[in-house]
Amino acid sequence: DVFKRVLWGARISMSVGLGCVAISITIGSVFGALAGFYGGILDDILMRVMDILLNIPATLMAIAIVSAFGNSIRNVLIALCIEQIPKMARIIRSQVMTIKNGEYIEAARACGTSDFRIIYRHIIPNSLSPIIVESTLTVARTIISIAGLSFIGMGIQPPSPEWGAMLSESKRYLRECPHLVIAPGLAIIMSV
């Protein structure tokens, strides 16, 4: 029934959303922390790569990746992560550049602490607040993106009950059975 498919679709949408956040935070944190902490040519190279990724329209890039590699949850997740990594890297980089000049960082250097330990134990934990905010927004953006990709047939394919695919399947029956469209639409709205 529709309710069961909406609940099952929540598993897919939420797992892809949370997976995208986990992957983009991990990779974005590494790139952003290295670029912000060391600066110089490493910062220039990493941030230019991130700028290139930011300048490609996200939906177009996701469609291209899914078209090239096929419609599967893994490929959709990769496409959506590539879209989010540069945003996370820029946020981490700005936080690292602010925090790295703190007195407690100078004290850790004076004690002979390695750069990796300074980044891992002092800088990253102190830059978590904007990461948490961006993570919640990223989950919402990812759910909208996966629903949009599935709606146009480029995301998760039927019979998997993804919300966007459910909307696409049931748009033909809008006049006779509007609940088929309302249920997944409300699920998208409430989760985002």
Order of helices and strands: HHHHHHHHH
Question: What is the rounded Rg?
Answer: 20 Å
Give the oligomeric state of the chains in this entry, treating copies of one chain as homo and distinct chains as hetero: single chain
Number of beta-strand segments: 0
Please report the distance between the alpha carbons of the first and last residues: 23 Å
Roughly what fraction of the amino acids lie in strands? under 5%
Q: Which runs of at least 5 residues are low in confidence (pLDDT < 50)?
A: none
Helix content: over 70%
Shape: elongated
Number of helices: 9
What can be said about the biggest beta sheet?
Answer: none
Mean pLDDT, to the nearest integer, reads: 89
Structural class: mainly alpha
Could you please describe the fold and organization of this structure?
This protein is mainly α. 82% of the residues lie in helices and 0% in strands. It contains 9 helices and no strands. It has helices at residues 2-38, 40-55, 58-69, 73-99, 103-110, 115-126, 128-151, 163-170, 179-191. Helix 1 (2-38) crosses helix 7 (128-151) and helix 3 (58-69) packs across helix 4 (73-99). The two termini are 23 Å apart. The model has no long low-confidence stretch (mean pLDDT 89).
